[in-house]
Queue: 2 jobs
Job 1
Amino acid sequence: MANFYITTPIYYVNGDPHLGTAYAEINADAFARWHRLLGDQVRFVTGTDEHGLKIAQAAAEHGVTPQEWVDRTSERFRGAWGKLDISFDDFIRTTEPRHVSTVQEFLSEIYRRGYIYKDLYVGLYCISCEAYYQESELVDGKDCPVHGRPVTEMSEENYFFALSKFNDRLIEFYENNPGAITPETRLHEVLGFLRQGLTDISITRSSIDWGVSVPWDEQHVFYVWYDALINYLTAVGYGDGSGAFEQWWPSVHHLLGKDILRFHAVWWPAMCMAAGIDPPAHFLVTGWMLVNGEKMSKSLGNQIDPMAVASDLSSDALRYYLLRANGFGLDGDVSLESLYRVYNADLANDLGNLVSRVVALSIQKGGGRAPAVPEIGSDPLGAKPLLEGSIAAWNAFRPMDAIDHAMAIVRAGNSLLERAEPWRRPEGDAESLDALGRVREGLRLAAVLLSPAIPKASLEIFVRLGFGGAGELRWTAEAGGATLEKRPPLFPRAVAG
Ligand code: ME8
């Protein structure tokens, strides 16, 4: 049994979960579910990033302490992910004692090894990003490139991480492990950045106190990014002697958006090297969900509410749309209009209708019993190659492709029924029952392959078609015979609105 450890970014709790953060969760959840289906031992970790200036300011604006503020806001994320059927195994909050002690232990190890030193820092800081910028990176020489708002000059004495010492090792690491970043375009971006040369970075703050304190100098707290990245180690018990760390590290898959690629693919592996542990094995970098060509974000206020979609349609509908919307790693425009269009075409028409049709025809022509599944034989559905294609796509982290292959089985099922025309044939006709049995098995396979995307509907499909459960990931002849019943549509047609 293989281990499969996957993480999402831990989100800032100063806003509500939105479509972008839901997108990361849903992708990671689909991969976790896929690997559970394969029988792997899965550890899927998400959480919330609760320290830093932005959070302290939001708490002050609401007249509560930072801790009260993060207790409240973190819960909104956990609740939202529950409603979207996110099957995380652990939810890390960076204010938890287990995390605070991991941060202190890990960074003390880097300090002991001589890669952290004290110096004066003067720089241009964006509070929304919690990051310093070089003047050349700013828009019109003054505005943050992400938020479009002016940055502020900050000066403080603080501790630095000797990032520049890891420049060559990082280049060597990526040259030797070109599969470490998916998609490959992001690997080239990282290598390009590394070849320009790295400078040391400031990793503590003395101007704020809402953070993890530096154990060897209590006047300082760690810069929020340095604290946040370490959650990936907290989740596997770094330093707790339980053996979990050795089991799960370093073969981890870090899923993240392209906006935080450098923190993850440059700083984080360097920190690991500095602490004497292996860098993480794999980064899965998503593109951006765009609305009318613009990045949707909390600050721009142009978001689609994922929770409203989940309650108006279903969590499966949202999940399917987001996984199917564009190829993994690419930017893609999303809109409610296209969501409803995809929902009606793929889920209501193709999939939902075919399930209803097989049930109705089995009732009319098969005595109300599930038709037997014949041996695959000449495979008129083309199920075998489509199944293999879908499996390969899920294994290669390409959900859109995996879904397309599964949906092609569904469409082949519709065509087979059109050809066999069981509705024109007498009850008990052998050819009709063969076609119905094949389509029934094709739907089971499609539902298994789609289950990482639409977990609820997949279970319902197994029940409606008289299967005991998901069954095997291969064509399986079976005797049939379970009683089938007509039920309301699996995905009722819907209009936006
Ligand atoms: O960056 N399209 O948290 P965050 C796609 N706390 N994905 C999007 C998106 C969009 N329009 N908007 C956001 C942080 N995301 C840090 C992370 S990890 C150690 C610390 C997703 O709340 C995307 O995955 O700003 C992005 O990387 C993440 O949300 C940023 O979430």
Note: The domain at 336-464 is CATH 1.10.730.10 (Isoleucyl-tRNA Synthetase; Domain 1).
Job 2
Amino acid sequence: MSASSFLEGNACVVGLQWGDEGKGKIVDFLSEQADVIVRYCGGANAGHSVMINGVKHSTHLLPVGVFREHTLNLIGNGVVLDPQKLLEEIEVNTRKGFSITPRTLKVSYKTHVVMPWHKLEDAAREAAAGAGGIGTTKRGIGPTYADKMHRTSAIRVGDLLREASLKEKIERITTDKNKVFSALYGEKPLDARTIFEEYSEYGRKIAPFVDDTGYLLIQAWRAGKKILFEGAHAALLDVDHGTYPYVTSSSCSTLGLFSGTGAPPQCVRQYIGIMKAYSTRVGGGPFPTEQDNEIGQRIRDRGNEYGTTTRRPRRCGWFDAVAVKYSVDLCGVTSVALMLLDVLSGFDQIKICTGYRVKGERIPYFRTDVETLAEVEPVYETLPGWQTDLSECRSFESLPREARDYIDRLQTLIGVPIRMVSVGPDRSATLIR
Ligand code: GDP
Ligand code: IMO
Ligand code: MG
């Protein structure tokens, strides 16, 4: 199977665990063959890293396609946009020599804007909840999506370009938010004029990038362009289908790509699931296979498991085939990329969770209700490990037998072909079979 065949009929890359599976690396790898890269969910709470010629680059809002010269990059309506962060990202990456212009980047006018009150609310709610909080990235994501649903207190990218009505909206919303923040959190009032000045300036800077991305997408599809949808977060963080309430606030499984972009369902044929060779999670919530011990620490050290967005240490544990199988089924996954296999070198034995027990009873499927998930006891299968460093392997056949057996076992358990195996962060450390 060649890299270009992954894009036949267009493709969506989606995380199958709790985020940070290496989606950025695979989007970068596949984008060589793609014409259009589209973000459909989340915001600057995502952090996607790519390694190009030994140098690491990260994006939070920009699609990873900005690192290729030939691609058109779209930020769909399902995203929530922090304009300050977007402009910063454009500036940083332009300084590094990447060309990010209104020709290569388009932002939907329907995209909702993260406003200062959203970041304030996110931080205040987390602080008030203490240990009972979600452990959010404090990027204002949840409050922005909440206002999207409220409608009358929302601001979209298109609104930033209409100064008179923007001023009126900011004044009205700030008055309301100040009452709430003062009563609930004892916060100092926000100043509507300062916010208007700052955000109308962002509007002027972003205006050349703003477009009807849904229309552009349909045009691209009709013209036979190869389109790659870049999922952020992961299926288990999906607001409806993840481990609620320890999720993010968007539809970040594959199910969100249509509402988040305006693409019609028949536009996408391939759903490429991304999974690590083990499990990680940032923030709160149950994590059945967590290894809060020296095994977890070893994975964290070897995998450099610290968040791209917040630098928080990621919680680490063994691969959970029950959880991933759930995500595979939910997302309609057609093939899988197995990431960070090199990190598992050096273990004498490697465990895979193949089932759950609750109060002694075996349950055959994943449970997203956190009350049950917090109680499950993982049932493990143990496989022999391998001692060789995998990072220089460049073909599937050159992997040690134990590593190939591990891959085959995972494939059987999740029920879809593992077509890509990644053994290092660089583009070249990607094996296809
Ligand atoms: P994303 O959010 O799914 O795009 O993943 P992140 O970029 O947040 O985290 C994945 C991290 O793993 C990044 O630092 C990547 O450079 C790194 N990475 C990706 N694939 C591999 C791999 O196969 N081996 C190793 N050692 N690192 C990898
Ligand atoms: P990428 O795209 C890992 C987690 C946060 C927190 C919860 C809610 O890089 O894989 P939020 O700020 O979204 O309200 O936080 O969701 N979370 C992620 N964890 N990778 C991500 O994105 C994440 N996006 C959100 O840590 O537990
Ligand atoms: Mg990440």
Note: The mean pLDDT is 96.
